[in-house]
Amino acid sequence: MRRSSPSRSLQPRTQVGTMSPAIALAFLPLVVTLLVRYRHHFRLLVRSILLRSLRDCLSELRIEERAFSYVLTHALPGDPGHILTTLDHWSSHCEYLSHMGPAKGQILMRLVEEKAPACVLELGTYCAYSTLLIARALPAGSRLLTVEQDPRTAAVAEKLIRLAGFDERTVELIVGSSEEVIPRLRTQYQLSRADLVLLAHRPRCYLRDLQLLEAHALMPAGATVLADHVLFPGAPRFLQYAKSCGRYRCRLHHTGLPDFPAIKDGIAQLTYAGPG
Ligand SMILES: C[S@@+](CC[C@H](N)C(=O)[O-])C[C@H]1O[C@@H](n2cnc3c(N)ncnc32)[C@H](O)[C@@H]1O
User: Fold this and answer.
1) What value does the mean pLDDT take over residues 35-48?
2) Average of pLDDT values for 114-138?
C-alpha cells in the first residue's frame, strides 16, 4: 500500500479545478448573456432530451409508445385530423415530440394538395405525424411509402396509421434505413417514380439520399422535394448542392419549431428539373 509522505501532505494544495472569484465574476456577464440569448434552446434541450430520457428510464417505454397510449385513450379512431390534434396537444402539454407540428404541417398539407402527387415517398416516419398529414391531403388512389429505420418506432407508427383508417394500399410503412431502402424501391416495392419526396429523417443524410434518388432515377422531371429542419439543426451541404447543381428550383418556407417559435427553422421546397 502506498502512503503519502508527511512532508508532502503539509505542503499547500495546488489549486486544481478552482478559479479565483475575480475570474469567475469576469465570466458572469458572458454566462448570463448566453443563458438569456439561448434560453429557448436550453428549454428545448431540457424538454426534448433530459426530461424525455428520465421518463424513458422510469416508464421503460419510449416517448412514441407513451404518445400512442395517450392517442388510444383520447383520439377518435378513423379520424386522422383528431389523431393529429391529439398528438399536438400531448406534445404541448405533456411531453415534447420531435414531430413536424401544426405550423409546418399547414405548409406540408397545402403543398400536397397543390401538387396532387400520385406517389409520395417519406423518409423518417417517427410517430407518423407527417405521414397522416400527407395521407389526409392525397387525392384518391394515390400512394404513400414511408421509411423508418427504428423498428420500435415503426411499430408505433404502423398502429397509428391503421388507427387513422389508412390501409396498406394507401400508406405502406417500410422498416429500414433510407440508404438501404432507396436502391430497393423499384424492385421490391414497385415504386418507379416519386412525384413528391419528404426528407424528414436526419438533415445530415439529406444530400446523400437526394443523390441516391437521382442515381436510381426515382424522381420524374417536375417532382417536388420537401426537406424539413434545413435551418435547425440545419442541412447546409444539402442546400448548397440544391442551389448550385442546376437541377433544382429552390424555395425556403420560414417557420419556427413547434412550441418554440423563437427557434427559427425552415422547410426547403425543391422542384426537380430532371437529370439535365
Ligand atoms: C424528426 S423524426 C421525423 C418526424 C416525422 N416526419 C413527423 O413529423 O412526425 C426523424 C425520424 O427519422 C428516423 N430516421 C433517422 N435516420 C433515418 C434513416 N436513415 N432512414 C430512415 N429513418 C431514419 C428516426 O428514427 C426518426 O424516427
Assistant:
1) 89
2) 98
Q: Which of 49, 83, 125 to mutate to test the pocket of ligand 1 (most atoms within 8 A of CB)?
A: 125
Rounded-to-integer distance, Cα 115 and Cα 55, Å: 40
Q: Tell me: the pLDDT tens digits for 225-257?
A: 999 999 999 999 999 999 999 999 999 999 999
pLDDT bin (cut points 50, 70, 90) of residue 46 is: confident
Tell me the ipTM for this assembly: 0.99
Q: Can you tell me which atom of ligand 1 is nearest the CA of 101?
A: 8
Q: What is the model's pTM?
A: 0.89
Does residue 62 have its Cβ closer than 6 Å to ligand 1?
Answer: no
